[in-house]
Amino acid sequence: MAKKILIVGGVAGGASTAARIRRIDESAEIVMFEKGPHVSFSNCSLPFHLSGIVENSNRLVLMDPVSFKSKYNIEARVQQEVVSIDRAGKRITVKHLVTGEVYEERYDYLVLSPGASPIVPQLEGVQLPHVFTVRNVVDIERLNQYIKEGQVDNIAVIGGGFIGVEVAENLRLAGRNVSLVEFADQIMMPFDYDMVQILHKEMHDKGVELIVGDGLKRVTEQYVELHSGKQVQAQVVVLAIGVRPETKLAVDAGLEIGALGGIKVNANYVTSDPSIYAVGDAIEVYHQLLRKPTRLALAGPAQRQARAAADHLFGMQHQNKGVIGSASIQIFDLACAATGINEKVAKQAGIAADSVYIIAPDKVGLMPDSNPLHFKLVFEVPTGKILGAQAIGKGNADKRIDVIATLISMGGTLEDLKELELTYSPMFSTAKDVVNLAALVALNVLNGRFKQIHVSEVRELVESNAVFIDVREKGEFANGHLVNAINIPLSELRERMHEIPSDVPVYVHCRSAQRSYNAVMALQNSGYNNVFNVSGSFLGICLSEYFNDVTTGREPIVTKYNFK
Ligand SMILES: Cc1cc2nc3c(=O)[nH]c(=O)nc-3n(C[C@H](O)[C@H](O)[C@H](O)COP(=O)(O)OP(=O)(O)OC[C@H]3O[C@@H](n4cnc5c(N)ncnc54)[C@H](O)[C@@H]3O)c2cc1C
User: Fold this and answer.
1) How confident is the model over 117-140, as pLDDT tens digits?
2) Which residues line ligand 1 at a C-beta cut-off of 6 Å?
């Protein structure tokens, strides 16, 4: 007999499950319930409507119920909310949100993909009509219309995660005055504090007022007040402080919920009831690197889980390898991507980890649009297992991160990355791509061939008058340098080595750490044994210092910033 499969949620996980089931079984009866007016819309493209990159909001909706029926024989019932599950009777109760009708529907199998809803903190003023959240097409249309019709100039976005940053960026591109408020000391948590300073600078340079380390206290008609007492003018407030898995249905039905608040599933996305599957933002998944449950609200994993659940429902095998967390975002002129765990998370998890920060051209320097790519590679010590990477630049950061994501999912090490044979044309990359280069540098560090310090350690060392040798050429030095650095260009190093003390630690840098690496090796090979290369070097130092310097008014440690 044909299986009757009901699906709760008609977007990323729900629609993907439905489509996969239809491809496996032509006879199954598939009904998908969606409480909103649209199924199958591009959640990820919603913020781009605010800038007009996606001009017509109709284009955000990829398929409607009529196409689902005619193309796939899937019944998509919109504006119909599943309000309860009777597990014993294998029935759900549905409420039609327009007519008010309440009815029941029987199932053989039920798939839950209800997603996650934006968190709205219980603070004064959050219910005011000018406070918005962004989850679906209706939300983004309302927000866009309110801003345009009210000719709103000042907008506060609360929360510096992916959604908050994209909303802030697109509103700024639309010419609004945007303040982005983040409670933590940084936006975009997948990036380490040193790398994220590049993103802070980009937001700041493009005219977003970025406020970190301060949280929302209350909302009024004209402004938001922060914990610090600061008042930020805002005629529109967008709350993007995170999402909470939609588990009410599952909880009420007595399904098991995990420690992190998501629906608990097994390796095949089966809940604690063998007739009920769950996928997407509402569930807990297994972190391949941290070896524990996690939550990951991303579209790619939701779609993979949907396929795996559908396959399992029909007895097809699937190997659940867990997640690693790969994500990318465009922030104004910068492509930014990260995968795996960052150094902070690795250390919090008690994993012995180290990292290298490479700044290398994303394509051969002679080529048009060659730009520096900032690349951080995190690896386990002493195994050299690759744990994560972060890339930021005007060029293909995402491509580099996808390479690392592939290696991580296969348990790759620095040796694997060193030997990885990638494509090369001067138009696309360099013969030794930045990812290969990062592996070479990391192997040198891991094997103790030279020592390094990170840009995050430089300020304290400068303030304690440590010896910094800047091996860039004189003209470069004159154009900005660390306040107490000694300039000995690499080209003069061998004649002037006697000027470098051998009884104290010496920190060597250049522009991007390549010339300084050569200098460090020359010094080591001449008997110096307390020499450190500054990973990221002057470019990295300037980028990592700038935002905090200009927003806190602290004393810069450079005479002038260099960003190129
Ligand atoms: C603004 C924004 C930008 C994003 N950008 C990215 C990105 O760039 N990259 C990325 O990987 N991810 C991104 N995401 C996350 C991604 O969209 C989600 O991870 C993905 O959609 C999760 O799929 P899902 O099926 O679990 O939930 P959803 O796609 O949210 O679908 C769940 C649906 O279930 C419906 N529903 C809930 N309860 C019921 C019920 N009881 N009855 C009927 N219907 C119900 C909801 O109305 C909702 O439409 C973004 C999300 C947002 C909001």
Assistant:
1) 999 999 999 999 999 999 999 999
2) 8-9, 11-14, 33-36, 43-44, 46-47, 81-82, 113-115, 134-136, 162-163, 246, 249, 280-282, 297-300, 302
